[in-house]
């Protein structure tokens, strides 16, 4: 069960369980031969057991505020304008997070979730620095292929023919009802059922546009520019001016729901609400918050930390005057502001929780869904990005024969 608790404030998600549901039926291809296997995400990737409270040795529940007394507080006049804006936003959402998280965590614990205690956790396996973006960059130096000018029909992912796939210039689709473990570019990847993807950067979006599909839900996780990213060099950031050039109006249905992940930097939030969405002809209708907790329900960082906050923002937008469509009835269903999505975060950098379950009531039945700047695939979704296969690498999964008893442990 992916949604382990739901209330007026929002939802508590079991992200690991939701991912495992995507691979309940799986086929492993070796050339033209196939075998049934069971794929499960390595559970310790979602076992954050210890809160990162550097200035206190005591674990603090998600319903309590944490402010270090050991670190000297700066006066308000010492803050620059950006820091003042961040504090103002935090002051606005702080009581919402405190009250909502406490209620939802209590509800989850009553159902036997968020009860794991512990001080340490095993780190999830980390691959060498992902080379997919570098491969995409090299591909952009090549002239456009004929495939990019074709009718947009995806190439079909089949075990015996994966070596001939053009992952950079054509959409690739797993049409099967089962997930597939296949070899791509010399490495094994797990591809969900009914999923379609394009591995490219923003300069090679034409194959996605050539499909001429209109999507009812578009989730965007932009590579925002910030100092932390610049220092770590984890990925190539994209200027705001480039984000405006995304062809969202060509990809979105008339009543499409837009969901954009935003950093806690208020300037990014203002940009999305007042520049990016209007540029595409959409209007921001709500801000939701992803609250990160440990396996025992504590904030992963102090709520009042000046360094890192235990939450991130999602801005929801619509292209029409209808707030949303209620599944089954077709009646308008308002999207409430400041809903919380609570989950244990992945220990892998930049892996966001899946939003399929919580967004389902706000989109039409059998909606076509698209994720941009994706780093993983979802069953039934189309995904695009220069690292779109990153978290599909087989090393992040436990793959066992389907009849192997170890697959159930």
UniProtKB/TrEMBL annotation:
It comes from the Eukaryota. SUPFAM superfamilies: S-adenosyl-L-methionine-dependent methyltransferases (SSF53335). PROSITE patterns: MT_A70, N6_MTASE. GO terms for molecular function: nucleic acid binding; RNA methyltransferase activity; site-specific DNA-methyltransferase (adenine-specific) activity. GO terms for biological process: methylation. Pfam families: MT-A70 (PF05063). One of its GO terms (cellular component) is nucleus. Belongs to the MT-A70-like family. This is Methyltransferase-like protein 4. It comes from Knipowitschia caucasica (Caucasian dwarf goby).
